[in-house]
Amino acid sequence: MNTFCGEELGKFGFGLMRLPRNDDKTIDTEMTSEMVDRFLAAGLKYFDTAYVYEGSEAAAKKALVDRHPRDSFFLTSKLNANAAKDEADAKNQIYVSLERTGAGYIDFYLLHALSAGNKDKYDAYGLWDYVKELKEKGLVRHYGFSFHDSPELLDELLTEHPDVEFVQLQINYADWEDPTVQSRRCYEVASKHGKPVVVMEPVKGGTLANPPQSVKDIFKAADPKASTASWAIRFAASLENVKIVLSGMSNVEQMEDNLSYMKDFKPLNEEEMKVIAEAQEALKQIEQIPCTACHYCTGGCPMQIDIPQLFKVMNRDLLFGDHEDSRRRYANAVKDGGTAGSCIHCLQCEGECPQHIEITSWLEKIAEAFE
Length: 371
Known about the structure:
- This protein is of the alpha/beta class.
- 44% of the residues lie in helices and 13% in strands.
- The chain has 15 helices and ten strands.
- The mean pLDDT is 95.
């Protein structure tokens, strides 16, 4: 049996962020309840929600907490400093989460989405010590943090806070060697510090359930019956220091597919890992902008274009071809800055770029694609 922070539980977790929705966009509690029941019936126990997941904690109460004995499951939630007006508001989130879920206590409590951009806020509010106080009071049983940034910052945080019990990371085969996400290096940092890992985004927001055709062909040739999502989730779950892999399931069909290979999980064997390597190589062959998001290009941009963010949108579109999703992401990316089409070709960005990217040429292509 898989052991995580002293608890015995399966290696698969039900992420409650992408729950099924009714026509009016409210969470479909009836379908969620059916999915919860199937998950528990498979012998799995780990449920992941958060203060900022709209409607999720309330749905957890109706579908899970009110319908099943409290000792039959483990519930996770998260404290998000960015969603707080001030320190008091941040520290009150645990009480809101407990009221919404009716759970009495939270089994695994996380400081949410740590990054260089918000680290100072978590420090200023004293939230690292606060979660320890919550554990002493019995309101949470274990605490950790989720993380979206560089391996260097992760190393710094784990050095400063050695008492953290676990860390949640974005890991999937597409991001394993990605120069921005750096999944592998972040995983290695957590392992170096002896911290067990919970995996989020093993299917990269659903995109690896429908990857580029070249990748699909590789997987289908290796095992015609296996879903493409199964390769992604099993890859993450096969890593030695990974204790839980989360999947944000939106319908019963996704639940049943995931349970078919995660109920009695078997790690990828040597031949299957070679198939993953083939898929990773196929992804590399798709044209990508070699941006590392260093932001050297943006400091002097007279049009205030967030170039790395626009490149991220374009790369995702080139990889997965989901143009509707890409247009939505592009709209969000230019909400507070210049559009790709607003570039005046001053070329200061190209002079600063350590990757020597033809930035203005790519901005023209992005404008053509999304404006």
